[in-house]
Amino acid sequence: MMVSLLISGLPAMTIFMAAVLQEMALPFHAWSVLRPDLVLICLFYWRLYRTDRCGPILALLAGLLVDVISGAPLGLNAISNILLILVIGRLGRLIRSIDFTYLIFVVPIFVLLAEGIQLGLAMLKWGMAVRWQLLMGRPVATMLLAPLVIHLLVMIHRTWLEEAHARR
């Protein structure tokens, strides 16, 4: 009973571990421009392959966690995560039909979209004093790290979720 509850919450746990790793292990002052968006990679994967476990509420909570840990304005990451989850959900079949090698280039497009949303919201608050360099550095770093993170998520998905479901 307890194990099945933990297994069903595995996507949420991986997203929250990615948020903590992204914001605590990669300090902002050292990795400001080339800082991968681990949370978005995890949200992207789980929304594509386990839509029942990853929805807008999980995206909202993950975004709020990133906002609280990083000190960003509350709701900045949350709004962009929710919008991206809705877009990924809408285009899910099309994205799943893409070959895995091309999928690596789709992730930075979503990161660029997320950064554009965050830049637009930040410009509403602070004007032109926002750091626009993040708009280009984050997709490049995410594209470089996405294959490793997605491979890890595939291994977790296969060993924990699919094998546990097959045992029932």
Automatic annotation (TrEMBL):
Membrane-topology descriptor: Multi-pass membrane protein
Q: Does the keyword Zinc apply?
A: no
Any idea where this protein resides? Cell membrane
User: What InterPro entries does the entry give?
Assistant: Cell_shape_determining_MreD, MreD_proteobac
Tell me yes or no: is Hydrolase among this UniProt entry's keywords.
Answer: no
- What UniProt keywords apply to this chain's record, in alphabetical order? Cell membrane, Cell shape, Membrane, Transmembrane, Transmembrane helix
Return the Pfam families for the record: MreD
* Transmembrane region(s): 58-88, 100-124, 136-156
Q: Which family does it belong to?
A: Belongs to the MreD family.
Q: What is this protein called?
A: Rod shape-determining protein MreD
The species this protein belongs to is Candidatus Magnetaquiglobus chichijimensis
